[in-house]
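Long-time lurker, finally posting.

We've been working with Cytochrome bc1 complex cytochrome c subunit (Kribbella orskensis) and I want a structural starting point before designing mutants. I don't trust myself to interpret raw outputs, so I'm hoping someone here can both generate the structure tokens and explain anything notable. Sequence follows.
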Amino acid sequence: MGAADSTPRPHWRRNGLARAVVIGLALVVAGLGYSLLVPNGAAGADGPQSQQIEEGRKLFAVGCASCHGLNAEGGSDGEGRQAGPPLIGVGAAAVDFQVGTGRMPATQTGAQAPQKEPVYTDEEIAALAAYVASLAPGPAIPATEVYDVSNATDEEIARGGELFRTNCTACHNFAGRGGALPNGRYAPSLMNSSPRHIYEAMLTGPQQMPVFSDQVLLPQDKRDVIAYVVSLQDQKDPGGFGLGRLGPVSEGLWGWFVGIGALIAVAVWIGAKAH
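Top reply, 14 upvotes:
Generated this for you. Predicted structure of Cytochrome bc1 complex cytochrome c subunit:
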């Protein structure tokens, strides 16, 4: 009565090895939970990605903050007008396109930023893109295999042509040579555009261009469009002059001014000789 329980405890509870196994399992569970909660690609404070982001932040503060704000929140010109739009959430792909094509930094304000030689190196562009991408989620720079059309088939090029004529010719012309838009804006020629930048433009919708997300055009659709544009870039001009490939209007003007002009000159010459 009231005596202490003298039943011996199981041997495994007294074993130090069992205690170590329990602690090890707890650490494994904690590690798995942390890996699920921490975003993929997160780097330590001194990791290469963090260093690249910090380098991009410094470049942004020097070359971009005057228009886009020190924290990419957007800026004004001092008179209440927007100097540069906010970049939070535009993603790395938008930065790679705008800076990689030389459109940014802009040399002057205007209806549209023209393409020019890039100011930054590839490493600096990657750092700027990494910094802007760290501010908020947005479209990432596409992998090479996504826009590689070196092995595109004739069927894919033909399908890309159909998609291009349906979605792009209203602005870029059926030959990809660009065209005028209202208020001094224009759709640029695609003859010097790289597949990577074309893909990024469809992803991000720069300036007046609409966004062609993966819900609007599937990645394979985008690749087919790029294959068609590359085929246009590779086309030769058998007649010697492409005349902008603008169609019968430019060809008719050429025939009128040159052809009819030559006939008039010959007629005048014949009349002078006869006299």
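Before you design anything, note these points.
The domain at 144-236 is CATH 1.10.760.10 (Cytochrome Bc1 Complex; Chain D, domain 2).
Residues 38-44 have pLDDT under 50 and may be disordered.
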